[in-house]
């Protein structure tokens, strides 16, 4: 799920960036550092939408670096258990398939794939129904439900299922 | 003693969950005789009746092998039902304080330096009620969750097991397990192929996509859920009853021992050997179990051990005091003087008399002193009338002494019996006999009732001059136990042609 929240970070700036464009430099540095990262607590930071305020800079002892506490607004993405997402299949395996929903990777084990879908290996391994009507292969779009998340310090990983109603393939690239 | 609902909870839980626990391995044969399933229930039940108990003692009580017991207790410890404490102690007979000290200070000294002091590790165990309550609830919750998950079409996280090293993985670990070469997950240690763990409760029917199969599975699970609810209903009810009651807490082994020994010591005032006697490390507790002639005082620190308070039973009876132990003024009963106990009836009546006395000791004291003087004068008169009116006097004395003695109705009868043997000095015997019981009323209580300080004061105050054993000589059965007793110089004595015997 997406959230728009205010986060805070201490940015260190090298003296070479001081001058007229100090603030701009600070903001661009912030964006470079933060966008695309993930924190276990907030989730993935998708984009920074604005700077709320920049505090007074503190000159570090020994080096000339200056630390600014910056408050900024950003869009974050965090998956939750029980959430339903659309994802794109990236890899199909005998044990299940991997899908990506933006920055987060989701694994659906074969145990949670409907019983009527069998694995078929080949150069394009896929899961397919007995009558061949539904196929899950690389790059198919799939709607799945998250049943578990694993949150590390800088990484989030999910387990999903397509065994419930209204879940499964949405869009088949080959069809 | 722990509160009854908790014990009931433990018993129900034991029978619900552990009744098929066996100490034999899975491969061993369980023949009829050697099959010990249900051992766990027996042990848990035994533990509900005890608090902190040494494992060897428990094994002895239950008549099972120490090793089996230990295995079971280890299992319980893992299940969080029981807390155990292992500590080094000197062998049997060690004093509690040594044990406590040794446990807290350097044990090396004892072990290496001193030959005689060998420190063995003793293990103690006790039921942990707080944990039991939580553990049982958690177990029930997990059971229900599992069944619900299964019935809801498996929104469960897949588990993988490595057949080589047995390492378990979760589907959440899948990312780091995926291998490039082939399509299986590989173990991190041994690179073996992981096997998915199949459905535990409802057996999957081989990829059967039939709706029927699924429905059957769901029904099976619903059945299981229902059965579980009905069979576990008493346990769940007991849990609800118990949740509002404060949990009995025995504390850590040392704290409990300290409390128990303090309580024991308070209950048995003169018995200062409690800690050393308790080779079992219970302090005064084993005495509680014997429940004999001890008065249990409700000590402030102790929880509820002294509920069965103040019942003094003279069941065991009092020790016969050797002559050298008897000092002047000691209030002794005939028993303590080593006299024969005639009939149980007598004892019964005297003991019942005793228990009445307990409450009215203080009042009786005054009466006694008056009675003593009265008796003395009376007996003096009797002596004069020995020869002629023995029989009649005796009866009168009996009556009067019975009045005087109050509770001691039995004693005159006794004396009557004894006096019948001799015709000579029955009157004399009376004199001495009466003194003893009157004086000796509260002696027993001194040793048993620490609480009754009144009794103590009585002992101190009652330094009456026990009138001489003027007539000791006569009855062979009569012995002088009080060496301090002096013969009264009465004129009548000189006239006696009885030989005085100082015992």
Automatic annotation (TrEMBL), chain A:
Keyword Transcription: yes
Residue ranges of the TM segments: none
Presence of keyword Transcription: yes
GO biological process: positive regulation of nuclear-transcribed mRNA poly(A) tail shortening; positive regulation of translational initiation; transcription initiation at RNA polymerase II promoter
Purpose of the protein: DNA-dependent RNA polymerase which catalyzes the transcription of DNA into RNA using the four ribonucleoside triphosphates as substrates.
GO molecular function: single-stranded DNA binding; single-stranded RNA binding; translation initiation factor binding
Gene3D superfamilies reported in the protein's UniProt record: Nucleic acid-binding proteins, RNA polymerase Rpb7-like, N-terminal domain
Native organism taxonomy: Eukaryota, Viridiplantae, Streptophyta, Embryophyta, Tracheophyta
Protein name per UniProt: DNA-directed RNA polymerase subunit
Principal location class: nucleus
A Pfam family it matches: SHS2_Rpb7-N
TrEMBL record, chain B:
One Gene Ontology CC term in the entry: transcription factor TFIIE complex
Organism for this UniProt entry: Linum tenue
The keyword Ubl conjugation appears for this protein: no
Record protein name field: HTH TFE/IIEalpha-type domain-containing protein
Biased composition (Polar residues): 401-414
Any one of the GO BP annotations: transcription initiation at RNA polymerase II promoter
Lineage, top ranks: Eukaryota, Viridiplantae, Streptophyta, Embryophyta, Tracheophyta
PROSITE patterns: HTH_TFE_IIE (PS51344)
InterPro entries (UniProt xref): TFE, TFIIE/TFIIEa_HTH, TFIIE_asu, TFIIEa/SarR/Rpc3_HTH_dom, WH_DNA-bd_sf, Znf_RING/FYVE/PHD
Keywords assigned by UniProt, alphabetized: Transcription, Transcription regulation
Region (Disordered) residue spans: 334-367, 401-436, 471-503
Skewed-composition ranges (Basic and acidic residues): 334-346, 355-367, 476-491
Family: Belongs to the TFIIE alpha subunit family.
Extent of Acidic residues compositional bias: 425-435, 492-503
SMART domains: TFIIE
